[in-house]
Design brief:
alpha+beta; 265 residues; Jelly Rolls; 7-stranded antiparallel sheet; single chain; 4 helices; binds calcium ion
């Protein structure tokens, strides 16, 4: 370890000297070139030498409130998710996957499976969007079937080592609706819904997906039946656990973007 660290520092110094020499050779003597050399030297010299990382099981070290170090095992999980129409999934604030079909695609129905590593407890946060053509909330604008689309999402999380399902969407998940439209449903057949349909956009809290975000003010998600949502392509490809439920806001049509959170322990 010490030897490799020494090697690393020696290599960093050599690298810095080479870069400095290059800068001089190029006739570049301004401040930015000097700063670049300094940055390279500091960053590389302080970084652990490659090959020092343990190849064994991944562990996560956290601290309790008293400052006591706790080492917990990290497991590999898989989240299966189906959304009408689009979703992005975060674990403890980190984006681990998003729907491969863009939200700009009308009638996008597909299931996705994302893998991630985490140590319990961890927070799952999902941004779910129903397709809307504009802030009017409508789809097929200008066509005979101009209408309010509806949403819905279902997800389940499995520990890939044990095959055990550890969590699934249900009404215990918390929800914040950040796009609602149209607020006046009678605009649905208007010739120019963009000028007559009313909408409400709520700011998305900056750290809403993080484990430490305080979601006290959020409401519980609403559980919906398969008959309500009529889940389509991709839904039947997943072997849903009986406890996994379709959820959304309180209105399948008006609620267009829903933020969802649950902490798994
Ligand atoms: Ca939809
Ligand atoms: Ca809608």
């Amino acid at each position: 370890m010490l030897d490799s660290m020494k090697r690393s520092r020696a290599q960093a110094l050599v690298l810095a000297v080479v870069i400095a020499a290059s800068a001089v050779a190029c006739g570049s003597s301004d401040d930015s070139a000097v700063n670049t050399v300094t940055d390279v030297e500091v960053v590389t010299a302080d970084a652990p030498a490659s090959g020092d990382a343990a190849d064994g099981p991944i562990v996560t070290e956290t601290e309790t409130e008293t400052g006591e170090a706790v080492v917990s095992d990290t497991s590999t999980y898989e989240i299966e998710v189906w959304a009408d129409n689009w979703m992005a999934v975060y674990i403890d604030g980190e984006l681990i996957g998003e729907d491969s079909v863009s939200i700009t695609t009308e009638r996008s129905f597909n299931a996705e499976t994302f893998s991630f590593e985490a140590a319990v407890p961890f927070t799952v946060a999902i941004e779910a969007k129903d397709f809307k053509e504009t802030d009017s909330g409508l789809e097929y604008i200008g066509e005979a079937k101009q209408q309010m689309g509806d949403g819905g999402i279902i997800a389940q999380i499995t520990d890939t080592a044990t095959g055990e399902m550890v969590a699934a969407t249900d009404a215990s998940w918390l929800a914040l609706v950040v796009h609602q439209a149209p607020l006046n449903a009678d605009c649905v057949s208007d010739a120019d819904p963009d000028s007559t349909c009313e909408f409400l956009i709520t700011d998305t809290p900056a750290d809403w997906a993080s484990a430490t975000f305080e979601d006290d003010g959020w409401m519980n998600a609403t559980k919906w039946s398969a008959a309500d949502v009529s889940p389509k392509d991709g839904y039947d490809e997943v072997n849903w656990d009986a406890s996994a439920q379709l959820i959304w806001g309180t209105d399948l049509e008006v609620d267009n973007t829903v933020l969802l959170r649950s902490t798994i322990s």
